[in-house]
Please model this.
Amino acid sequence: MLATHIDAEQRYTKLRKMALDTAQRTFQSAGNQNITASAITPMALSASKLWGQSPSRQVDWDWFEGYNAFKFRYPKRFEIALWETNKLIGLSMGRPTYHGTALRLDVVEASPPDLGDRPPIFDMILVAYGIYARFINASEIRIMNPINDDVKHYYESFGYTYVDKKDYLFREVL
Amino acid sequence: MNNITDLKKAQKKKREKTGWTQEEIEQMAAKEMQEHKKKAENEPEQLVSGDMQKIIDGDDDEENK
Model:
């Protein structure tokens, strides 16, 4: 691994921590006392394996493999695990675009519904991305590859605009 | 109307130069959290999106390099 890569990993780990701490305080101030935001830790990856046992899960993603590939390749990435008390309820990771002008939300998954009730996660995920985007001075957030029309319309309700050709939605960070 | 547009442009220009302060970031986060609250009630039961295979395969879909 190059020294510049290690250096970037260290610098951006600090920024990620600052963003997650700020997000945590924001969630709690808004009344979400049972919600904790963390990095995608070994504990989160281990908890995500339970999702694989859900018959209602829509994807067969291996978060362990995906996260490790992403972490290795993108030191400037953003990552978040959301917990309700001790239950993992959501995972997401994204990264700045090549020139750093936009922050991509590459993947997001909430715990499948047959594994128990959970609060909505996407509002909190978006707030956390907004915080990190501002820390790195990105002027846009892009939600990549919406998996179906339901989620696409849901994202649009947050003011995001779909770009058909590139299959993402975007919104300016104002 | 023009004044609002000009103000937004000026703010954007300032951001590009100086970025955001921690205080501004916290204020915007609190504002967005409040704005998102109502919309979050309509969250699909199965919230998932993205392409994990692209990540595992190392496909870079960025065109603006």
In short: Residues 49 and 57 of chain B are 17 Å apart (CA to CA). The interface with chain A takes residues 8, 11-12, 15-16, 19-20, 22, 24-26, 28-30, 32-34, 36-37, 39-52, 54-56, 58, 61-65 of chain B (CB under 8 Å).
